[in-house]
């Protein structure tokens, strides 16, 4: 995985709705402030990642660096957030070294379609149900109008598999029967739908992309080399067959034998990427079975013959 360079953050001239500076990281002495900051950023109307950079004085802007051990184990931070906030806010720390000074950046990836993020229990001066939002450079308590906006932008979308099988016959695409439930008030448009396949012990094996979905109401398919877009109408359910590209090499990678089976189950993960949001909807399915038959097993059979 390519490492992202966050050094550009420390050269920004001011804070904004997506960026905050802290001179020190005071997690043990100011956990209340930490909770408010993360929740407020996650509830921001701005899509995409938000950042808190530690080691930068904000008035005036000065790169002071940290004495804090930037190789610190941050599992306690993540556990603290998970225990006190719902729904879960994806966060992670990264380290920046610039001009021989050390900085930390907290990347907050809460999705706008999952708001509101709220306190799920009392903590010191904060109470269960407390909710904050970032406006400009300020964190404010959420108002009635904020909650109304959350409701308008909230996406209620679920995907289930009608059975736990994926099957591949000859050189046809891999097919999975699934059901989409869009209980939102807007039509959902997904520019990419990816399938990731994991082993029974949760090792990543391979991935592929959906290029067709066929239901009794509609047949959606990429044509003339165009990228596939999955459209789901508002407040509707759709049951059908999704098709994914799959190769003879991938049949070997996932461990199918000459009979097209594997004695162990798989985990399948579906990732849906929207037009207007970089955060995917992710659905995991355990104890799945993959079947292969015919030409798709050509390389598997050929390899076994050579052995």
Task: Lay out the secondary structure.
Layout: E1 19-22, H1 31-42, E2 50-54, E3 56-58, E4 61-63, H2 75-84, E5 85-86, E6 91-98, E7 101-108, E8 118-119, E9 132-135, E10 138-141, H3 144-153, E11 157-169, E12 174-182, E13 188-198, E14 204-215, E15 219-221, E16 230-232, E17 236-244, H4 248-253, E18 266-274, E19 281-293, H5 298-306
Parallel strand pairs: 1-2, 11-19
Antiparallel strand pairs: 2-7, 3-4, 5-8, 6-7, 9-10, 11-12, 12-17, 13-14, 13-16, 13-18, 14-15, 14-17, 18-19
Characterization of the model:
It is a single chain. By secondary structure, the protein is α+β, with helices and mostly antiparallel strands. The protein folds into 2 domains: 8-152, Methyltransferase, Cobalt-precorrin-4 Transmethylase, Domain 2, CATH 3.30.950; 157-306, Immunoglobulin-like. Helices cover 15% and strands 41% of the residues. The chain has 5 helices and 19 strands. A 7-stranded mixed beta barrel has the order 11-12-17-14-13-18-19. The longest helix is centred in the first third of the chain and has 12 residues, at 31-42. It is globular and about 70 Å long.
């Amino acid at each position: 995985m390519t490492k992202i360079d966050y050094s550009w953050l420390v050269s920004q001239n001011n804070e904004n709705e997506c960026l905050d500076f802290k001179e020190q990281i005071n997690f043990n002495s100011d956990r209340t402030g930490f909770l408010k900051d993360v929740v407020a950023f996650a509830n921001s109307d701005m899509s995409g990642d938000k950042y808190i950079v530690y080691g930068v004085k904000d008035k005036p802007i000065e790169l002071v660096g940290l004495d804090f051990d930037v190789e610190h184990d941050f599992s306690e931070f993540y556990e603290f957030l998970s225990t006190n906030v719902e729904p879960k806010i994806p966060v992670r720390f990264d380290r920046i070294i610039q001009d021989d000074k050390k900085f930390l950046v907290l990347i907050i990836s809460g999705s706008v379609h999952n708001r509101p993020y709220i306190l799920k229990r009392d903590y010191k001066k904060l109470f269960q149900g407390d909710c904050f939002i970032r406006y400009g450079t300020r964190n404010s308590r959420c108002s009635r109008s904020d909650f109304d906006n959350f409701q308008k932008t909230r996406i209620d979308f679920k995907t289930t598999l009608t059975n736990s099988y994926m099957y591949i016959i000859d050189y046809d695409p891999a097919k999975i029967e699934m059901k989409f439930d869009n209980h939102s008030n807007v039509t959902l448009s997904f520019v990419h739908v990816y399938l990731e396949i994991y082993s029974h012990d949760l090792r990543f094996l391979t991935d592929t992309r959906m290029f067709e979905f066929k239901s009794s109401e509609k047949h959606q398919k990429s044509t003339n080399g165009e990228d596939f877009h999955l459209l789901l109408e508002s407040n509707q359910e759709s049951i059908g067959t999704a098709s994914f590209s799959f190769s003879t090499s991938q049949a070997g990678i996932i461990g199918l034998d000459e009979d097209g089976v594997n004695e162990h189950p798989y985990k399948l993960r579906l990732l849906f990427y929207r037009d207007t949001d970089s955060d995917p909807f992710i659905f995991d399915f355990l104890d799945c079975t993959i079947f292969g038959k015919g030409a798709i097993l050509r390389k598997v059979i050929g390899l076994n013959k050579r052995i």
